[in-house]
Amino acid sequence: MEDENNDREQKHEESKSRNHLFNERTFLSWTRTGVSLIGVGFIVGKLMLEYYIKGSGLASIGIAIGFTVAGIITLIVGVWRFYSVQGMIEREVFRPVGYGLLFLTGMLTALGIATIIDMVMR
Predict the structure, then answer these.
(1) Which pLDDT value is given to residue 37?
(2) 1 three-state secondary structure
(3) 78-110 burial by CB neighbour count: b if 16+ within 10 A, else e?
(4) Terminal Cα-to-Cα distance of the chain (whole angstroms)
(5) What are the Cα distances from residue 32, in Å, to 71, 94, 103?
(6) pTM of the prediction?
(7) Contacts of 82 (CB under 8 A, 6+ apart)
(8) Which of 4, 35, 55, 119 is deepest in the core (most CB within 10 A)?
(9) CB 104 within 8 A of CB 34
């Protein structure tokens, strides 16, 4: 009986460790996404700087700033989510993600549409 309890406790701890590893991997995905968005903002800004100097690329600079801000927000949300999930794993509870991700997705969708419109208008 005692061996069965020890076995069950060991499996529980292994499961908890695995969940922490999953959480860390998800955090690294958030980080990669945030850094990529910042990179896109930087590239768009550099490429469109020439148009801005000529007076016709203000929208492109706005799009570049938007992608950079979206990247920064993604990094902040990723850190917040990492610590939030870490606490949930320790307390053995689960609370689904709220509307923050919906907002982030909407913002990125709007930036994508604005980029397409800006490219077509040129």
Answers:
(1) 94
(2) coil
(3) beebbeebeeebeeeeeeeeeeeeeeeeebbee
(4) 75
(5) 9, 25, 19
(6) 0.78
(7) 23, 24, 26, 27, 30
(8) 35
(9) no
Phi then psi for 99, rounded to 5 degrees?
-80, -5
Which tens digits make up the pLDDT trace of 48-104? 776 665 655 677 788 888 999 999 999 999 999 999 999 999 998 887 777 878 888
Q: Are 51 and 57 in contact (CB under 8 A)?
A: yes
Our CA angle for 27, 29, 30, nearest 5°, is 65
- Conformation bin of residue 92: beta by default, left when phi > 0, alpha when psi is -120 to 50: left
Q: What is the mean pLDDT of residues 31-51?
A: 86
Residue 30 in this model has a pLDDT that exceeds 70: yes
Average pLDDT over residues 15-29: 92
CB 52, CB 61: distance < 8 Å: yes
Residues near 100 by beta carbon (within 8 Å), at least 6 away in sequence: 77
- To the nearest 10°, report the CA torsion of 46, 52, 57, 60: 30
